[in-house]
Structure to design on (226 residues):
């Protein structure tokens, strides 16, 4: 089983601060996705990164795929209380989704006003 | 609205009483999958299906059954539920053949007493 390790597991910071969440593996993935999950709801896709070294931006969120396609990071600038949630990274094992996604255990993020 | 619909949202049942959790998607996705989410263990795949009449085991299939008789529906069946199947269950769907992400349902919280 290919594992995805996320760090930190828990993070509580003040509104306006910056933060980075990491997703690491010893395996290569054809693509990597980031999801955000709020209590009582299913995960919602934020972004998919496909190419090694790729950087994608979604407003204050910046996602990067490692050059070797084994790791990824999520950076949030000027965090807001609305960013609070569980952030999950997921790796596509086979390309095209046929074998399903391997999920990390997630980072619980709390942004305090 | 593109969505994955799961029912019921909450279910409390007794050990051994057969139950079915329904899942339906309106996006004409080929791929559908069931996950369970447990504290400390993250999201783990139970079963998946790449198309009608094609199903396969995920990482934790014991005690579960699925069927895919129509493209839009992918029910999860627990023939004889046990307390260790108490969990939060998610159905997800996606296109095949591209790096697109999953669309998740809102979840079913199952308690087996």
């Amino acid at each position: 089983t290919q594992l995805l390790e996320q760090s930190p597991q828990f993070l509580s910071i003040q509104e306006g601060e910056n933060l980075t969440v990491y997703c690491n593996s010893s395996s290569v993935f054809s693509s990597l996705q980031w999801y955000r999950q709020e209590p009582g709801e299913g995960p919602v896709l934020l972004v998919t990164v496909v190419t090694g070294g790729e950087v994608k931006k979604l407003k204050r969120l910046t996602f990067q795929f490692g050059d070797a396609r084994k790791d990824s990071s999520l950076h949030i600038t000027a965090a807001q209380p609305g960013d609070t949630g569980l952030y999950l990274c997921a790796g596509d094992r086979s390309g095209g989704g046929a074998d399903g996604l391997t999920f990390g255990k997630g980072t619980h993020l709390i942004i305090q006003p | 609205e593109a969505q994955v619909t799961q029912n019921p949202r909450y279910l409390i049942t007794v050990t051994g009483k057969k139950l079915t959790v329904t899942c339906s998607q309106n996006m004409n996705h080929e791929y559908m999958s069931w996950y369970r989410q447990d504290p400390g263990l993250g999201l783990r795949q139970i079963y998946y299906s790449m198309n009608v009449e094609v199903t396969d085991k995920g990482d934790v299939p014991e005690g579960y059954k699925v069927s895919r008789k129509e493209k839009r529906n992918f029910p999860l069946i627990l023939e004889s539920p046990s307390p260790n199947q108490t969990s939060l269950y998610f159905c997800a769907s996606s296109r095949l053949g591209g790096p697109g992400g999953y669309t998740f349902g809102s979840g079913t919280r199952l308690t087996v007493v």
